[in-house]
Amino acid sequence: MSGRGAVSGPGAVSGRGPEGGEGLGRGPVVGEPQQERVEGSPLAVAPVGPTRWVGSAVLRRALGRRGGAVGLGMLVAVALFAAFGSLASPWDVGEQDFEHLAVPPLTGGHLLGTDVGGFDAYAMLVAGTGRSLLVAAVVGVCAPLLGAAYGATIGLWGGRRERVGLWLLDMLLLMPAFLLVAVVMSAGGGQRQWWAGSAWTLAALLTLVGWMPVARLVRAQTRSLREREFVRAARYLGLSSGQIVRRHVLPHLSSYLVLAVVTGASLAIVTETLLSYLGIGVRPPEVSLGQLVGRSTGQLYAFPWLFWAPTVTLVWITLGLALLGDAVRDALDPRGRR
């Protein structure tokens, strides 16, 4: 009888040991990524686990640059001002001082003076900064996420469903966005509805009209990922389209989403300023920076402090967003990594 044992049957496993002898095949080694075989697929193995999000690395590189760090610092400073600035003044945004009407800064206990109605300019600046930042943050975050989810989903589908989804997207892009926002924000006329003229309503409207361009770009990029091995492997493993988008597609596109968030916030605050300046954005009793600039433009020479305080704050915010956005673009450019 031979000294070499023979094992037969469908469950037999053979191989060489680490010393060159024959024996059982090598088992998994601690520390190696585990892989799962996909039966009946052209892929030998499929990685288990979600794809790593690359946007965090891009953001770290952006903040490592001087412009990115300065831009973030400017935004943090203005956010702290909006959150805690009211502690520096005893006056509330809706409180009137009839003894000090249209007084200049540092008069009668008013840091930035008052307007013709006796309202404290500093309190209005704090409240207006908070509302404008609210619109920028909501639109900057929600519009790219909504657009990315829609674009990645239809891009992953392919076929007839993708064509229908793309047709719907094109129809929405033809929608007169400015007219829609103006009509909704001006609803009610003299008897204003509770939601008309609100910063939350404006943020929701700008999100609804601002996600479509992101969706088109994400859909095009998702089509290039659709036939990649990790997506095909995820399909063979039985993952749904939503799971593939969440675990594999969006992490690959997260660097673009970081840039889309910064760009979207910049566009949102500029749009809010324009709409409020025209009187179809945030309206009293709420206050925004654009509204303050619009109300004080006609009184620039008589009461310049009412104009320059919100204007300088707007420039500060847009400059901070611009510096941060430029740093993110440089971090996305391979030539900028030197």
UniProtKB/TrEMBL annotation:
GO terms for biological process: transmembrane transport. GO terms for cellular component: plasma membrane. It is a multi-pass membrane protein. The keyword Cell inner membrane applies. Residues 1-28 have a biased composition (Gly residues). Belongs to the binding-protein-dependent transport system permease family. The keyword Cell membrane applies. SUPFAM superfamilies: MetI-like (SSF161098). It comes from Kineosphaera limosa NBRC 100340. It is found in: Cell inner membrane; Cell membrane. It comes from the Bacteria. The chain crosses the membrane at residues 69-88, 133-157, 164-188, 194-218, 256-280, 300-328. This is Putative peptide ABC transporter permease protein. Residues 129-325 form the ABC transmembrane type-1 domain. Residues 1-42 are annotated as: Disordered. PROSITE patterns: ABC_TM1. Keywords: Cell inner membrane, Cell membrane, Membrane, Transmembrane, Transmembrane helix, Transport.
